[in-house]
Amino acid sequence: MDDQHARGSVGYLLEMGALKRGKRSGWWIAGVKDPESIAEHSFRTAVIGSVLAMLEGVDPAKVALLCTFHDTQETRVGDIPWIGRRYLTAASNEKVTADQVADAHPAVAAGIQAIVEEYETGDSPEVVVAHDADKLECMLQGLEYLEQGYRNAREWVDSTRAKLKTPSAIALADAAQDMSSAEWQRTYLR
Q1: Which Pfam families match (predicted)?
Q2: Please, are residues 82 and 155 in contact by the beta-carbon 8 Å criterion?
Q3: Backbone torsions φ then ψ of 146, nearest 5 degrees
Q4: What's the pTM?
Q5: CB atoms within 10 A of CB 50
Q6: 94, 70 in Cβ contact below 8 A?
Q7: Rounded CA separation 34/19 (Å)
């Protein structure tokens, strides 16, 4: 690998670090003072995606990969909440990704662009599961915020629950409605 492509690839990796500092801004609308970061959301989405993929009988590694890269564009355009999308026109995630990886090694650029394009436009079972993972993570986060006293998170819980498609995501969402975030500690850490 030549120095220019190595530097371009590292530049992309450094840019991804901004996801650890960027907040999921939709939660501010619900009154959450210090919402989760985009990276925190993406990490749990990838884990949820892997679990859902195992339950649905599709490729967990592929789903985790799709989930990992699904919000990486937010380093450039931010996390635009659903209400903001009514007033703003942002570049497509595919276009933002192309700009992000423009100086990276060609194999890196092509690979990341393909992942993002598949997430955004694909209809494979893995893509459906990845989208459900994104919604289920939002729902779980909303339930956690409800427990912390943020009553306005209920709208996020209900609206994301209603958009789930796979039987496994629906079953996990139903189970989550009746389980506190601390229950796993009482149950599994005896």
Answers
A1: HD_3
A2: no
A3: -60, -45
A4: 0.93
A5: 20
A6: no
A7: 15
* Cα–Cα distance for residue pair 157/145, rounded to 1 Å: 10
Structure tokens that stand for 7 in this block? 């530097």
DSSP 80: -
Please give the DSSP secondary-structure letter assigned to residue 138. H
Phi, psi of 37 (to 5 degrees): -85, 165
In Å, what is the CA distance from 142 to each residue of 26, 100, 118? 11, 30, 27
Residue 150: helix, strand or coil by DSSP? coil
Structural domains in the chain plus CATH codes: 3-188 (1.10.3210.10)
**CA 71, CA 137: separation in Å to the nearest integer?**
13
Q: Is the CB of residue 150 less than 8 Å from the CB of residue 31?
A: yes
**What is the DSSP code (8-state) at residue 30?**
T
Tell me how far apart the alpha carbons of residues 11 and 44 are, in angstroms, rounded to a whole number.
Answer: 24
Q: Provide the residue-wise pLDDT of the chain in tens; the chain has 190 residues.
A: 799 999 999 999 999 999 999 999 889 888 899 999 999 999 999 999 999 999 999 999 999 999 999 999 989 888 777 777 788 887 889 999 999 999 999 999 999 999 999 999 999 999 999 999 999 999 999 999 999 999 999 998 999 999 999 999 999 999 999 888 788 777 766 6
Rounded Cα gap, residues 57 and 134, in angstroms: 18
In 3D, which of 140, 158, 131 has the Cα closest to residue 56?
Answer: 131
